[in-house]
Amino acid sequence: MSSILFRNAQLVCPEGGISEGDLLVQGDTIAGVGQIDAPADAEVVDVSGKVLAPALIDLGVFAVDKGACRFGGIARVGLMPDQSPVLDDPGIVRRAAVSGKPQLWVHPLAAATRGLEGVDLAEIAINASAGARAIATGRHWIANAGTMRKALLYARDLNLTVVAHAEDGGLADGAVATAGETAARLGLPSAPAIAEALAIARDLMLAEETGAKLHFRQVTTAAGFDLIRAAKRRGVPVTCGITPAHLLLSDIAVSDFRTFARLSPPLRDESDRQAALAAVVDGTIDVIASGHDPRGPEAKRLPFADAEPGMAGAETLLALSLTLVRDGRLSLDKLFALLAAHPAKILGLESGLLKPGLPADLIVLDPETPWVIDARKMNARAGNTPFDRLPTQGRVLQLYKGGTLV
Amino acid sequence: MHTSDHRPGAQIQGSAVFPHRHLTGISGLQPHEIMFLLDEAEQWVEANRSRAKSDKRLEGLTQINAFFENSTRTLLSFEIAGKRLGADVVNMHAAQSSVKKGETLIDTAVTLNAMRADVIVIRHASSGAVRLIADKVDCPVLNAGDGWHEHPTQALLDALTIRRRRGSVAGQRVVICGDILHSRVARSNILALTALAAEVRVVAPSTLMPPAMDRMFVTPFTDFDAALEGADVVMMLRVQNERMAGGYIPSTREFHMRYGLTPERLARAKPDALVMHPGPMNRGVEIDSIVADHPERSAITEQVEMGVAVRMACLDVLTRRSRGVEGWA
């Protein structure tokens, strides 16, 4: 069995905090953390001055994109069911689960309803045995409250989390922007921001009543955070996520009809962005994810309302999230809770920490390295980033999946 | 003297007075640039009324009117404007049925560019489509209406109509009534009229009012009668039938009851208030015939006349660089 000893690292663990030390990998597993004597056969890697942290677990991507994940230090992804074909059948789920191996582990989020149509329950238990780690409503909410309740009840029986999209379709369908000055000036179909809180309020009540675990993939408004904050206090088993774009950009980024800034949910008003930053700091937000959705010119080089939503976010997830650390809002170990430990927990994975016995999914990171995001030179399958030409900091030097250098 | 009557354009020479390559919207134009276009249009009003209307300044230039959405009067107006300036005018009808929505827009733009158009006029059903094309071609692009976004020449012709009939745009109380939410005419007019220091009131049922109207420096009203008090200009917008299907208003007769411009309602405005409509009108829905056809009050046919003059001015100004006009090349 091969072993690697990382020496003189700045160890960053969501549980263990930040410390100087070594980390020993044996085979595909973390064997020791702290001050360690090198075993005779170990390959010693000196990482002085660098951060050694858990590899990222990106919860809720729309494409398996190995190049982008490797660049971004992502070892595992939770794959949304909105694939072609939809992840609602064990054969399709099983194929998706192995589609990134060995370097990228794909954890399918199976469709909650057949074809994601929001009508009939999919074969949730069979899909779970085929490798699904959670079920999801997809890009849209389940409009029928009765169907959503059944999905939650059924998922609770199987101890699976339901990953929900928080937008009331009655308000949000057809809208491409949040209601406000930007949408009014550009003449874009818009939905009021409360479309999100309406969906959250309904699903929180259903989760509270059924006792099912519920994760809102992206929450982006002040009203939404207030509801989740209060529900957590009541002990409702709810978690939520956000993307760096919703933390760093407001709907002003949509001016000039920039389709790379067309996202779902849409970029919000500045006051909602400020509320999102506060919600990251106070722990209301559990997960930062990329929402990775690479889209080529055929989907993006269109008039704004005709373009598809989504951004290529995997390779910029870590660097943009590090902004929160540089701005003093989060410590580095807290950030890795949002990027690795919490997503692992939601997916029921033993991972996301620097802890003996866990898989050696690791990154060596220089959090200071400056670089410029360039849409034309992305490792992702498409360069649709709203952060084009933004100077940023923090680069993954090495990514290990199960003790193997990717 | 009102601020918008100030004309730095009178002192500035050549392209510095209008430094824009395209006309994609009123947004981004300075008040004096709008005034410059209106001043340029005045000469064409007079020329169009004379017997010999042709001018040769655009001779040898190709003007393509690319209309991705059906239009009769705007297309005709741009065609006449181009022909009166001597341009070779070609119309491309590519209504949504034949060119599937958005799909080949960039390809179409590249094709038009390869045909060496000298100026392209575009109408499209999607907000932002004209800007998208403007970024891909080498010649000036004129927006003839994009989605709910802008229809700048309509706003210019409306401002010219108001200025000629009321002496100035500045200080006028202009009431815009109808489907503000889906109206590019309303958006461009709000931007142009507020830039020229008019007091703008917008009137619609709340289902047809865009968000954040106060941020655009206009006063929103749901009560038409209240908004009409002391109005100098009443601008009615067309109610489109698909808004009934979308559930924005219950019926045309209910809309007429609350927002139809009747002679009784018009009496609340100033005695000499001007009535405007971008056309085509739904008589008996948003406007009564007796008001629309009022010989002194209605400026509706004059708006059509001003439309040709304004479009001639825009075509002239935007092609000055490529024509090598002194001070513009």
Describe how the helices and strands are arranged:
The complex is a heterodimer of chains A (406) and B (329).
Chain A: E1 3-13, E2 17-26, E3 29-34, E4 43-46, E5 51-54, E6 56-61, H1 66-72, E7 74-79, H2 90-97, E8 105-111, H3 124-129, E9 134-136, H4 145-157, E10 162-164, H5 169-172, E11 177-178, H6 181-186, E12 190-191, H7 194-210, E13 214-216, H8 222-233, E14 238-242, H9 244-248, H10 270-281, E15 287-288, H11 297-300, H12 317-326, H13 332-346, E16 362-372, E17 391-401, E18 404-405
Parallel strand pairs in A: 1-4, 1-5, 6-7, 7-8, 8-9, 9-10, 10-13, 11-12, 13-14, 14-15
Antiparallel strand pairs in A: 1-2, 2-3, 5-16, 16-17, 17-18
Helix pairs in contact in A: 4-7, 7-8, 8-10
Chain B: H1 31-49, E1 62-67, H2 73-84, E2 88-93, H3 105-114, E3 119-124, H4 129-134, E4 141-146, H5 152-166, E5 173-177, H6 184-195, E6 199-203, E7 219-221, H7 224-228, E8 233-236, H8 242-245, H9 252-259, H10 263-266, E9 274-276, H11 289-292, H12 300-318, H13 320-323
Helix pairs in contact in B: 1-5, 1-12, 2-12, 5-6, 5-12
Q: If you had to describe this structure to a student in words, what would you say it looks like?
A:
The complex is a heterodimer of chains A (406) and B (329). Chain A is α/β, with parallel strands linked by helices and 406 residues long. Helix content of chain A is 29%, strand content 24%. Chain A has 13 helices and 18 strands. In chain A, the strands form three sheets. In chain A, strands 1, 2, 3, 4, 5, 16, 17 and 18 form an eight-stranded mixed beta sheet that branches. In chain A, strands 6-7-8-9-10-13-14-15 form an eight-stranded parallel beta sheet. In chain A, β17 and β18 form a beta hairpin. The longest helix of chain A has 17 residues. Chain B has 329 residues and is α/β, with parallel strands linked by helices. Chain B has two domains: 153 residues, Aspartate/ornithine carbamoyltransferase (Rossmann fold), CATH 3.40.50.1370; 149 residues, Rossmann fold. Chain B contains 13 helices and nine strands. Chain B has a five-stranded parallel beta sheet with strand order 7-6-5-8-9. The longest helix of chain B has 19 residues. Chain B starts with 30 loop residues before the first helix and ends in a 6-residue tail after the last helix. The model of chain B has no long low-confidence stretch (mean pLDDT 92). Classes of the chains: A alpha/beta (406), B alpha/beta (329). At the A-B interface, α6 of A face α4 of B.
